[in-house]
Amino acid sequence: MTNYNQLTKTIELEQYGIKKAKVRYQLSPKELHDITLEKGQGVEASSGALAVNTGEFTGRSPLDRFIVKDDVTRDNIWWGDINVPFDPEKFESLYTKVAEYLSNKEVFVRDCYACADEDYKLNIRVINEFPWSNQFAYNMFLRPTEDELETFDAEWLVVNAPGFKANPELDGTRQHNFAILNFTKKIALIGGTGYTGEIKKGIFSALNFILPMYKNTLPMHCSANIGKDGDTAIFFGLSGTGKTTLSTDPNRSLIGDDEHGWTKENSIFNFEGGCYAKVINLSAENEPEIFEAIKPGAILENVILDAEGHVDFADTAITQNTRVSYPINHIENIKVPSIGKNPKHIFFLTADAFGVLPPISKLTPSQAAYHFMSGYTAKVAGTEAGVVEPQPSFSACFGAPFMPLHPAKYADMLSKKMKEAGVSVWLVNTGWTGGPYGVGTRMKLKYTRAMINAVLNGDLGLYTYDSYHIHSVFGVAQPRECPGVPTKVLSPRATWNNDEAYYKTAFKLTNAFRENFKKFEAFASEEIRRGGPQRYAF
Length: 538
Known about the structure:
Strands 11, 12, 13, 14, 15, 21, 22, 23 and 26 form a nine-stranded mixed β-sheet that branches. The chain has an eight-stranded mixed β-sheet with strand order 1-6-7-8-10-9-4-5, with helices on both faces. A five-stranded mixed β-sheet has the order 2-3-17-20-16, with helices on one face. 26% of the residues lie in helices and 24% in strands. Helix 1 packs antiparallel against helix 3 (131-140) and helix 9 packs antiparallel against helix 10 (407-421). The radius of gyration is 23 Å and the shape is globular.
């Protein structure tokens, strides 16, 4: 059996309504790994990483995310299909049931924090039913020193009980699983799902309210890295668009792969202490840094292993949303601490399922604001429950599922910061080329990397007529040449070899943009509205 490392501090959970629990506090990744194996809840891969199956849910369930509607949130939250209100009394009742469920059980407790910048630090206590969920919290949140633990005062509480199933008729949920934020109680309550991404996205959603409301700081669903000259690059994008892959660059230090804040002092800081990367079709050749990060301490989710423990990264028998979490120090080239200054370039990553957007284009300030508010991408199969194939989608601010405030609030903050910092903004299509999904092919990673590097190296400079072509439908500036990329690839129309089909599809997408933007028109200036595609299909 495992020998538990006993720290000087002990934790009582009665204050949270959890009684007579067998508390395993602040265990090491190795201890949690071993307990998971002992309990038969996971296996060890040949790399030494822990491999687990998250059960019924292999992705987020956005329809089952709620925010308690009370005096703190009532007039501030952008209520609707994304931010679904939850009754405070129902929350109290459901929380009590979850606490009773965890009572008398072995539970795993971790003190950790979010936000690498000391001025924005958020202390968190995580209570998990499963040991591997607690190891995920170790990987993904920032890790206090033992001295810090002795005086640790938790501000937010995460209670995670995958085995508890709600009764929708009694508890006010949609179905048996739920993820509920209570900003008054400062609790993220998660039940009925083993998908670990709900844990990190719960705290991310909380910070997306706290930072702009109280700290004058823009929270961003983005990755970030920094060059040798101190220039920071920011990569916005939803799951499957390449945030983790493209920001993990051997020539630049990684700040973080998913969640960041942009402060009034013009610095960028990581919310997290780890990375959570998709591993579908992962290879040592294409993504060596991520591949090498899969070692003892990492957690693989929903992958298929052979008898010797080797992972078949192409096997999607369980889900296409196969994942790995690991502490950020599993990546060799990282920024310590995870803070950067002087952002110079912003990349909006989109997986265009229509295959009509250029692989890279330069945006004007009004276009940047328009595309940020629109957040066009494709839902990639398996990322969300019920999505079995890519679907064209709009997600405001490239992260609407995690944004409690109106998108105009975040867009306004970003626009001001872009102008103050003088950054260049680029729209990058990591999706389809040569036709839409089902006809064309996915853009080659080596070409996207070459385009990103060309921007960062200054090879795609200021707009001139000779060096850029204004796209006749979307109005964006499309470079005519780029080192390492065939000229034909830079023109989506040229890759189709069928002009009529290309323009018909392009106009179809522009109409979708316009239809989506109608809900923002009352909040957007004329300048921003003009940043969208101006040509109509008749």
